[in-house]
Amino acid sequence: MTTRTSTTTADPAGTPTASAGVRVTSTTLADGRELLYFDDSEPYVSGAATRRLDDPRPLPDRFAPDADGVVPTGPELRRDPLTGEWVAIAAHRMNRTFLPPADANPLAPARPGATYQDGEIPAEDYDVVVFENRFPSLLRVPGVLDEVTLRDDEPLWQTRPAVGRCEVVCFSADPTASLRTVGPRRMRTVIEAWAHRTAALNATEGVEQVFAFENRGKEIGVTLHHPHGQIYALPYLAPRTATMLAAASEHRARTGRLLGRDVLDAELRHATRVVLESEHWVAYVPFAARWPVEVHLVPRRDVPDLPALDDAERADLATTYLELLRRLDLFFVDDDTAVPLPYISGWHQAPARQGRDDWRLSLQVFSVLRAPGKLKYLAGVESGVAAWVSDTTPERIAARLQELA
């Protein structure tokens, strides 16, 4: 077991610096995965006390040979010859944890006095915690070279190790909470964790993109209801990211301007779809929104990613994001009762190694719920060829969110 402690986040260059009253402590779980506590409360933030760092579980090293002497190779990537896109093949995820009972919640703190439980966090309480996923779809295995090979010597069948990293971010020790209910101080700690991990993962060999996201609600397919999100460090540019980067680069070449800046300026100029403004942030429904509920939250200043945000922007984001989530949870009402919105939120950040000057940070939040009890199921033309059809208008979405101010 190794431990590292610091009171850090990351400055715009990605270098650890003192900030924001968040103490970061790193340790190693029984099977070798890294876990980091992000503490903002006493006596931990000052260093007067430290969260539990040992992991008593009898877990084997994740890279050790199995009983038959077989050395793990990890998940793989296969290139789709029809699109050129990489697909992660991670068969071990078929048996991952699915909707466990409350007394077997792996994201809950350890039970006081328990000598052993198969939970991921050794401490009996925590503020925010990040750890490597036990069932990752991306994993760098020591000794396995990241190189493209051909399956069965077929030139069309390209494969490579699914190197990268998958992390879980627990927003609260309270399994009944949600990101919306954590409060501004804890929300700020979550932001520090996102920025810290983005900077660290961007600097990791082979990582091309870091995507921090949250899935909330059974309608989205959440398998653990504890308030948490995830961070994927991908060894390639995801298809949507590649498309967005191509559009931004083309816009820069044609106009000399930043596409994300021009989009924000247009939304502010017309104001029809702007739903929330603060000193440093603007939320608007995009002109070509695809989903029944969709909002983009962007900084007023041109920055490529979360580590580039300054202290004032992070503090403002903590309150602005919570206000946006408050309104989203009031969007639908059924029998005079607000319906908590199932959603996916994701930070679209600049790639780690290319196109950073053409990129502008944005958060996308969207929902598959089109009315209480009714979901938007993708039609054949949407699932088959990604030809999207919206069931509402962006202006109607914006008008509803403006009402909720």
TrEMBL record:
Stored Pfam families:
GalP_UDP_tr_C, GalP_UDP_transf
Keywords of the record = Carbohydrate metabolism, Galactose metabolism, Metal-binding, Nucleotidyltransferase, Transferase, Zinc
Q: Which GO terms describe its biological process?
A: galactose catabolic process via UDP-galactose, Leloir pathway
Q: In which pathway does it act?
A: Carbohydrate metabolism; galactose metabolism
Active-site residue list: 228 (tele-ump-histidine intermediate)
Task: Give the InterPro entries listed for this entry.
Answer: GalP_UDPtransf1, GalP_UDPtransf1_His-AS, GalP_Utransf_C, GalP_Utransf_N, HIT-like_sf
The Gene Ontology CC terms held by the record are: cytoplasm
Catalytic activity annotation? alpha-D-galactose 1-phosphate + UDP-alpha-D-glucose = alpha-D-glucose 1-phosphate + UDP-alpha-D-galactose
Keyword 4Fe-4S (UniProt): no
Q: Which cofactor does it need?
A: Zn(2+)
Q: Which EC class, in a word? A: transferase
Q: Where is this region: Disordered?
A: 1-21
Q: What's the protein here called?
A: Galactose-1-phosphate uridylyltransferase
Gene encoding the protein: galT
Where the record annotates domain Galactose-1-phosphate uridyl transferase C-terminal, the positions are: 253-359
Entries under PANTHER family matching the protein: GALACTOSE-1-PHOSPHATE URIDYLYLTRANSFERASE
EC numbers: 2.7.7.12
